[in-house]
Amino acid sequence: MPIDPATAIGADLGEATFAWTASDVLLYHLALGAGTDPLDPRELRYAYEADLRVLPTFATVAATLKAADPPSVRFPGIDVDLAKVVHGTQQVVTHRPIPVEGKATARTRIADVLDKGKAAVIVQETEAADPAGDPLWTARSSIFARGEGGFGGKRGTSDRVEPPQREPDVVVDVPTLPQQALLYRLCGDRNPLHADPGFARAAGFDAPILHGLCTYGMVAKAVTDAVLDADVTRIRSWSAKFAGIVLPGETLRVRVWRDGGRLLVGAVAMDRDEAPVLSDAVLETR
């Protein structure tokens, strides 16, 4: 079905009410690789309920943690084959620290649909609030649907964030596990692209790839640990563009530049000659 931007843009995708527990938060953090040093009190903030704090990227999975079916890309004016879809960008803005346990209602809409020629970009925006109606977070994401462009829509503008022309202030290496994608899919993203070798080959990849949102969370944690003393409550927002894939088992090199109240971040895959993984990434502090 061709994309119909007139129908899609502004479409209300409904609301979802959900709840989470400390166990859900612990599972998410462990799926990001938390707890590698179980004697480090900073790691135990992620992996032990006694002083548990919630990494803001948990907002990307909170509503779908219990999902067991592959996601669908069928919205008003949009019907896209899942095998053609990759994550484009992700941003989470927290209005206050996410509680360890809670309930929320989230409403999602299609904020925009862009025509990049060879691909369509579908932008979604989600607002989440607690039962009293107080805002918790705003999430904005885009997905690239390969081969779905050319429908005559607007192309959109560039949102590049260039790092300073100097050496980074912080460099940290982040190993991923060979089974990282199999762990992360338990957080609600059962796309077979991340587990099924045959599906991955049909989608154009040599092997299953790591979830973009897993990379997004791992890099956020690495920056928080290296620059913010593992204090997740200091994060106001975290945004990034997915510049390339990660194969489970690779090591990521994360570079950070201080820029006023912002941290500018880039991440590359060391095992593939520093192939870009995340770009245009910005962590804003409170």
UniProtKB/TrEMBL annotation:
Coiled coil: none annotated. Residues 162-262 form the MaoC-like domain. It holds the Pfam family MaoC_dehydratas. CDD domains: HDE_HSD. Residues 18-147 form the Peroxisomal multifunctional enzyme type 2-like N-terminal domain. Belongs to the enoyl-CoA hydratase/isomerase family. This is MaoC/PaaZ C-terminal domain-containing protein. It comes from Prauserella oleivorans. The lineage of its organism: Bacteria, Bacillati, Actinomycetota, Actinomycetes, Pseudonocardiales.
